């Protein structure tokens, strides 16, 4: 699924958090949006899943404007894991994941055996099957995060929008979650704080600074010393992993 930001400006105050962002994301691409706190990562993602309408510009999902297309059509095509999703704590984990199937149902439809199979598969893929029958209120933050990812996968979306998907996850589940997402073959746009994870999993990195695109392209072109210093105010370098050769990011304080 193609995703295009065409001159998008958006925000909650008089000073927009995102300013004149133009990006074209091709089908099947895994785009990591990185930047310091307050750079506009979450704001940009919210314009995709209709949580925040752009002040100017357009967001295109495929050939359709995200804000003029039918709501149900966007919900069927776009799976979301957002930072502010409560998850319905009175539900069990399995019931929470079932919510991902509802965009595909009519007003009076019930889940079919096929829908239940999709739910169980999503629980298995994310490792959430271990606590599928537990109430969400009893789960740890990392466990709830895995349920929310499973719910997004249960939608069987063509575009997956992830806002800090590795929040609360331990290192093993951070790696497995992003490996899973990267293996799906669908378009993914994810806001990530950890540059090392972005470098290892994304095909394209977009670095935001104060709401504008400071750099965009393959990890090797974006993760440079100049970008580390200008955008993140740190020193750093990218080295190959000695085991698999994938890029690893090493960060250091700027020299005084």
UniProtKB/TrEMBL annotation:
<dbReference type="GO" id="GO:0005524">
    <property type="term" value="F:ATP binding"/>
</dbReference>
<dbReference type="InterPro" id="IPR027417">
    <property type="entry name" value="P-loop_NTPase"/>
</dbReference>
<dbReference type="InterPro" id="IPR003593">
    <property type="entry name" value="AAA+_ATPase"/>
</dbReference>
<dbReference type="InterPro" id="IPR003439">
    <property type="entry name" value="ABC_transporter-like_ATP-bd"/>
</dbReference>
<dbReference type="InterPro" id="IPR017871">
    <property type="entry name" value="ABC_transporter-like_CS"/>
</dbReference>
<keyword id="KW-0813">Transport</keyword>
<protein>
    <submittedName>
        <fullName>Iron complex transport system ATP-binding protein</fullName>
    </submittedName>
</protein>
<dbReference type="Pfam" id="PF00005">
    <property type="entry name" value="ABC_tran"/>
</dbReference>
<keyword id="KW-0067">ATP-binding</keyword>
<dbReference type="GO" id="GO:0016887">
    <property type="term" value="F:ATP hydrolysis activity"/>
</dbReference>
<keyword id="KW-0547">Nucleotide-binding</keyword>
């Amino acid at each position: 699924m193609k995703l295009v930001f065409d001159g998008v400006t958006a925000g909650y105050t008089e000073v927009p958090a995102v300013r004149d962002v133009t990006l074209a994301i091709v089908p099947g691409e895994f785009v990591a949006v990185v930047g310091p706190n307050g750079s506009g990562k979450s704001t940009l993602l919210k314009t995709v899943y209709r949580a925040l309408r752009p002040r100017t510009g357009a967001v295109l999902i495929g050939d359709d404007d995200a804000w003029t297309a039918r709501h149900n059509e966007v919900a069927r095509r776009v799976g979301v894991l957002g930072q502010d999703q409560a998850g319905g704590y009175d539900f069990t984990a399995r019931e929470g994941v079932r919510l991902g199937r509802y965009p595909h149902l009519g007003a009076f439809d019930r889940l079919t055996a096929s829908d239940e199979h999709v739910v169980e598969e999503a629980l298995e893929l994310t490792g959430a099957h271990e606590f599928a029958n537990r109430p969400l209120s009893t789960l740890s933050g990392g466990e709830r995060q895995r349920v929310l990812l499973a719910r997004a996968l249960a939608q069987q979306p063509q575009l997956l929008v992830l806002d800090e998907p590795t929040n609360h996850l331990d290192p093993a589940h951070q790696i497995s979650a992003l490996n899973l997402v990267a293996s799906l073959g669908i378009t993914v746009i994810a806001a990530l704080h950890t540059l090392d994870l972005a470098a290892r999993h994304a095909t394209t990195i977009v670095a935001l600074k104060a709401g504008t695109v400071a750099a965009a392209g393959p990890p090797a072109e974006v993760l440079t010393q100049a970008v580390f210093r200008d955008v993140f105010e740190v020193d750093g370098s990218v080295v190959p992993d000695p085991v698999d050769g994938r890029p690893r990011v090493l960060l250091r304080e700027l020299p005084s």
